[in-house]
Amino acid sequence: MNPVRAGVLAGLTVAAAVAVEFGPLAVSLPGGLLLAFVLPGLALNEAVFRPGRRDVGLTERAVLVPSLSLVVLVLGGLGLWSVGGHLNRTSWTLVCAVTTLIATGVAYYRTLRAGESDDSPPATTPAPTKLVSQERLIRDVLPLTLAVLLVAGAGVWSYADSVDTYDVAVSSLSAAPPGPVDTAGNRVLQVSASGLKSIDGPWRMVWIGDSGAQLGTRDVAPDGDGAWTGQVTVPGDERIVVNLFRGGDATAFRTLIIASQ
Amino acid sequence: MGDQPTSDKDRTPEEAAAEPADARPDETVVIPAVKKPADDTVIIRLPGSPAKTGTATKKKTVGDDTVIIRLPSPPKSAAAKPKAANALTTVRKQAGDDTVVIRLPQAAKKSAGRAVAVAVEKISRDETVVIRLPAEPEPGKTRPAGLGWAPWVLALSSFGVVLVALAYAGGRHETAWAMTAYWIGQVIVFSPVVFRLLSRLAGVAESFVLVMGLAANQYMLKWMYSPDQFRFPDELQHWLATTLITESGDLFRQNNALPPAVHFPGLAEMGAGLSLLTGLPVTAAGIIVAGVAHLIFVGWLFAAVLRASHSPAMAGVACVTYATAMHYLFFNSMFLYATAALPYFMLTVWAHRRWRTGGGPKFLALVVTGIVMTTVSHHVTAFALFATLLLLSLTELALERPRPWATLIPPAVALAVVAGWIGFVARDVISYLEAPVQRLAAALNQMFGGAAGGEAGTADAVPLLQLAVQGLGLLGLLVLFLAVARDMILRRDRDTWRWAALVGGAAFFAGNGARFLGSGGPEIAGRLSTFTYVPISIIAAIAIVHAVQIVPARDENGRRWLSVPPPGVAVTTGRRLSRQVYVGTTLITLLMIGARTGGWPPVSALLPGPYMPASYERSVDAFGVAAAHWQEANLPRTARVGGDITAVALSSTYGRIDPVREVGELFYANAWTPAETEIVRQLAIDYLVVDHRLGDRVPADNAYFQSDPMAGRITEPLSDEQLGKFDDLEPVSRLYDNGTVRIYRLGRP
């Protein structure tokens, strides 16, 4: 690895680590993706397989980079945890970044050593060619862009459609497991409701005892999120049915049953 | 696995397959074939000194009319100098046949190494090498990094992605055309790539881009099914395992949803690491990790086959054939621990190949790394990796002389690592795997012994059309398998990897019999085929790309099936090639359709849509998730909660409680009796989740519950009486009601 390449890789690693540790999502996202999938693998690749050698082909290098990066993430995390470390953003950032920097150093050192032992003149670098010719633009870039746009568009639309389909209002009535009976023989029920629309109100809660007699009633006024919670005191020795009524409905919208104790 | 065993050392696949003009300073010469359009005559000019035209031992096609013939280096003293006329050979193609016959001089001494000796043996019998040259127009100059038609093919494939997205939306809104759009989309995503790869005109870069592009597009098909959240139970279980790491910073935390996953933290670490590094939610990080792992796996499969065959066509065809594995599109690309292990399974196989072909100790180190990564990621994949390495070693030991005992190092290391991990870390995996092994044994017993159907019963017959499609595809694979087997046997093939692939292919057919074992059959076969489909894909690629004769011609002795195949590797051209491309594309597309119908999700849930009882992804909706979140907020982590398949999956993950799965009898009872009370006591059930939609229709998978006592025998939905009896039980409290899902506390408060 030549000095420029090593410097760029090291600089990118430090920048990604800083972005991950201190940056907002907009910068921590690319930084984290680089640290998780690219940089450690790239550096290890360079350290193990020297560039210019025919050890591995382009396709193999392309697959080795994310593979080795994930090795660092998994085995690094396992090693860190086994010595008592805590796996959080900072520790994983350090694992990935330090591994990358060490591997970059090794790659650079190996290149230096190889250069010292190699007396042959450096290989001539072919003249830079135009990266994107008009022909290539039409033949490669245009259709690939089209493919990416189609797939991305389909993905975004599919995501939105799935969220819209899933996004159904769920109205529930619930009670926390009741507490013990007090000295007066009563229990306190913490009753909650959610997903209540004010427009469907008014909401009213009625609780009934063993005999079918109404033991109490309360108006339920949901907050802006459609949630409500309150306490209800009921006899401990009776089986209580708690009904939530919507608007002028005659039948209960939601029902709880609390067994006697 | 390629044209003949060669060392991979110092040659990248790109160089081997895409740089025909690179006349290396060894025995390799490049012979450009010049075809005269008028008379079908092909003239091959042999360059170089006459001494280099002694014996042909290597032929390679590179996607155009160039034929590379690798020549041995006979000792100068012993090399018979051919006549000058041999340097310029003119041959005529025979009518109706694209085969060009080149007569070569007698082989030199067999002292140029084993690889040379093998080829010389062939030639010494016949002196004829048959090379089938492409008669079609030149596909154009290929650049090593040229993408060829891949971008346009992938653009076309992307239209299929759009169609499937439309189909999914149509499914969610229950439109009639959705299923039609789904199948058209699947074919458009898949078949153009297959067609292009089968045409054998793509170089390494183009093939690689095609294969990876197809894998990406197919992952999109999986993701778009449920893009906003994980819905498959196993994905939810791994979501929890990952979330536990992000919340606690610890590994090996108890996960009630899937206890064995605790000791295989590979996937969870990847997801947690990415989530923490990027700030993304665990679900988003998991989707990315699964996608990347899926692409890496395909990349390694391509690299391994390319390295072994030096043929981008074969690597590409093997990959697209593997894409027709039943679980490829879902189980093998879901956020499951096997998905994290599979890339390292293939990495190990690739590194093993590189090490065994002179790559050096760094590849052995990669083998060990791959073994460790596979082992800490997934138990079954680790077992399969050990078996694969053992198979590769045994074939090498059987075929190579002197026996290369060093080849036993990788399986020995795999055995030590896997045994050590299970023995010291993941002891519970043994009992965990006991149940599926018993189910498999029961299924096999039922198949071969005629035992009465148990849980894997046959009450729910697999639809005839589905069986026909799958059977037809399998039959095609079997024909290709037998053709390659016959070809290898009669050629006295000694390529260790080809033999290993052939044995693995046989294992595929043996394991695939489970596909026809009723409703549970496809799942068993699919899980097995995750591994055995790799070798059968390679065998299919060999058969298709090398145009192995399905029905061989009679030889001079009138023998058809025992006739020795012509030496060398046949490369079909002209109309025959066109026919093979069409037939091959049809076969592989048929396999893909069979995989979609027999794999996952089941046919009844191929499209996302409204709630269906006990139907995995189709059963996860806002009502069930809301009930699970209520449990997470209100119930202790130790609470034992039972319910149907979906309720248990949601309760144990989003709800974070201890699931009880064997509660079917409590639901099926028409009235509560002491027997039900005893079940509650034995299973220590604290809560039951009752979804009243279980009474709407029978479950598509013929079971409402895990370990369902009525599995395969359900003829009508649960009744109101069965579902409503809990309201009448004196000691039972209904603590949660969202109109659809109710949660009962069993026993007095």
TrEMBL record, chain A:
The chain crosses the membrane at residues 61-84, 90-109, 141-160. Keywords: Membrane, Transmembrane, Transmembrane helix. This is Uncharacterized protein DUF1616. The lineage of its organism: Bacteria, Bacillati, Actinomycetota, Actinomycetes, Micromonosporales.
Automatic annotation (TrEMBL), chain B:
Keywords: Membrane, Transmembrane, Transmembrane helix. The keyword Membrane applies. It comes from the Bacteria. Residues 1-14 have a biased composition (Basic and acidic residues). Residues 1-28 are annotated as: Disordered. The chain crosses the membrane at residues 149-170, 176-195, 202-221, 284-306, 327-351, 363-392, 404-424, 464-485, 497-518, 530-551. The keyword Kinase does not apply. This is 4-amino-4-deoxy-L-arabinose transferase-like glycosyltransferase. The lineage of its organism: Bacteria, Bacillati, Actinomycetota, Actinomycetes, Micromonosporales.
